[in-house]
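Example 9 (inverse folding). The structure is encoded as follows.
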């Protein structure tokens, strides 16, 4: 029995990756996650210039998850090289990048490739950054342009992280595939808001943000199911996974690998070892010898 899995050309020792935005801002935190059972780490989304992000409060807990609007804080791609130098020695690192247009994405992807990333993940889905993320990632023509430009700029695989804040995530997935994208990642956070009745105003300084955690899992599983049916390229599942049972839902919907974010924040880095043990137990009990045998089995 093996937990090894492949996302196209990217081979992982385990199917669980650290999702972008958690324990992935520094070299040492990425090394820590790789030594805690994660098969790979996706970096915090990095842009061309340093960005301070939003003022506090930028993160709050709700029933079933978290709502955050960090504001894409990051040191900028040039300074991030120091973190990549440390992280890539420890295991597979996927460079998450955000930009305002195809040209910016292409430049960032080239640098991530130079720094040793095994793939790039295009953030086409941050739900609350003006001019970035979801504003680009809900228009198939724009998605095609960005993915096409990045494909021309790098040799490493190009993944696109999609937003659920659209009427058809599969249409966006088709645009990624038509532009030569190597995989889709679904889902990013859902548009959300929390209000403090005592303060009579929104809790987050940015007013609204993105919902993650167990509350979004059923939305993510459905998105992966739709994408698996519509596409030939691999699908990676993310959204509300905190145990093996959650991960298996995504795998059986069609994901060949998955990412974990909120559960790392809630339960700590050991969540990957716990999920891996649970997957092995399920596979033993149900006579599966590989992750690949379970991918998409819930589809007709
Ligand atoms: C941020 C970016 C995201 O892609 C997301 O889903 C949530 C938050 C951010 O840095 O603000």
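The amino acid assigned to each position is listed next.
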């Amino acid at each position: 029995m093996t937990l090894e899995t492949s996302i196209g050309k990217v081979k992982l020792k385990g199917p669980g990756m650290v999702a972008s935005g958690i324990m992935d801002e520094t070299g040492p935190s990425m090394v820590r996650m790789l030594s805690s059972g994660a098969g790979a780490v996706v970096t915090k989304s990095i842009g061309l210039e340093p960005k301070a992000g939003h003022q506090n409060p930028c993160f709050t807990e709700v029933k079933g998850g978290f709502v955050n609007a960090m504001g894409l804080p990051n040191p900028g791609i040039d300074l991030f090289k120091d973190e990549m130098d440390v992280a890539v020695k420890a295991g597979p690192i996927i460079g998450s990048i955000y930009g305002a247009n195809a040209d910016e994405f292409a430049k960032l992807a080239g640098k991530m490739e130079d720094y040793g990333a095994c793939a790039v993940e295009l953030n086409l889905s941050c739900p609350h950054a003006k001019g970035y993320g979801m504003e680009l990632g809900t228009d198939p023509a724009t998605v095609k342009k960005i993915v096409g430009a990045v494909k021309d700029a790098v040799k490493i695989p190009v993944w696109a992280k999609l937003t659920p804040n659209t009427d058809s995530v599969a249409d966006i997935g088709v645009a990624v595939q038509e532009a030569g994208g190597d995989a889709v990642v679904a889902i990013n956070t859902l548009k959300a808001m929390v209000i403090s009745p005592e303060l009579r105003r929104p809790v987050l300084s940015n007013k609204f943000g993105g919902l993650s955690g167990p509350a979004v899992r059923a939305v993510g599983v459905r998105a992966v199911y739709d994408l698996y049916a519509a596409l030939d390229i691999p699908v990676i599942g993310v959204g509300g996974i905190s145990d093996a049972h959650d991960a298996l839902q995504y795998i059986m919907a069609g994901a060949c690998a998955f990412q974990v974010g909120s559960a790392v924040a809630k339960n700590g880095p050991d969540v990957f070892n716990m999920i891996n043990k649970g997957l092995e137990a399920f596979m033993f009990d149900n006579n599966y010898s590989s992750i690949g045998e379970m991918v998409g089995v819930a589809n007709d």
